[in-house]
Prior knowledge:
This protein is 32% helix and 25% strand. The chain has helices at 2-25, 37-54, 117-129, 182-201, 252-267, 279-289, 292-295, 300-314, 330-338; strands at residues 64-72, 78-86, 92-99, 107-111, 136-140, 146-150, 155-160, 163-168, 224-229, 318-323, 343-348, 355-367, 373-379, 388-391, 402-409. The chain is globular, with a radius of gyration of 23 Å.
Amino acid sequence: MKKRIIINLLICFVLVGLLVNTKYVNLVQASETIISADDAKKLAIAQINSDRLTDSESFKENIHINKMENLYSMDGTISAYLLAFEDSDMKPAGYIIVGASRNQVPIIEYAYKGRCFLDRAKQYIITKDRLTETSVEIYYTGGLNYYIGDKKNAYIYKVSPNGIELIKREEINISEVSVFNYNGKDEANNLWKSMENNIRENNINNVKDNITLNDGNYKSAYNSITSSKVKDYDKTSYLTIYDHDDNIIQPSGPICGVNVLKYWCGVDVKFNNLKQKSWDTLFENIYDDLYIAHYSKTYPEDYLEIMKNYFSENAEGCSSYGYYNFNTSWDNITDELDNKCPVTIILQGGISFGYEYLLGLGYKEFINDTGNSRYILVADGLGSEANRYVNYFTGYKSGTGIAAIRLRPN
């Protein structure tokens, strides 16, 4: 009799264990397979609430999910989810792009306010080509590589700091798809574990579309944060790809160069000579000096030399340095930002697309026991405001790390 009781108790314990484990199946269980839209929402909630509890600069209170959109890989599978938020007054209140599997990092990028840069690009393309909203899809191939186009068309638009470029789909070959390198795979897994543990710890379930995101007794995924932003970064209206003829080739170098100068002019009147006649004229001059029409790209060495010369001729020179190896360390970027100086960030846009230049204006490093989450605040040429925090992926992606250039006026 005692033996039967013991056996029955063991069976009960096994069943309870199975039930407990079944409960956790409903949490984010990311692998190479695609996670569901509900699981993507759980990741977004984990990030938003953890961000709020860790830093004073964060998402608004009482925001809700206004729109959720699938982003696709070129073979048609879901690669990421875009969640756009509204506040209680029905005004845009930022966005998050969530990776759909461990082939991506869990939180690819986010902004605390406004609309996603992809919305403006999508409307631009729809208007230009007279398309319908339902015929157009957004594609994401890793890194910061986004494309928009009619799902039935052989041509598609690449959306980047270099503009909105029409290309053949077949041009997006393996060299343009960002894949994790060996170390990056482990790093990404650590980031996923951190988010999954937070979802489990806070028992996030029953996610609704119009959910109000409240802190309550929420426990953050992060222990602390290290962050910095350059002075008055948000008082500059930055130059964008929409401010010039869309037939211009590879404009991100001169756009970023102008934005460096616009920033310093706004910080101190002693740099006013950097403007010359107008910002439009300055853009044209830097574009010509970089010989982009001849080379069809901006080389980092040329960018640094042209900008050094410009500071020498129109200010009192500058202190400069180039990190060209596309494996620039996190410290090399954040040291400059800690010194309250913006830093030029250069991405490899793939063999067919040259280099992409963005202006780094701040960073956030969320710290926990599993692995730190790192984001850079950028002026990307896709909007006049700097509100986009993008995932730092130096060493994460094969062939698509970050190079950087330091330019400090004297």
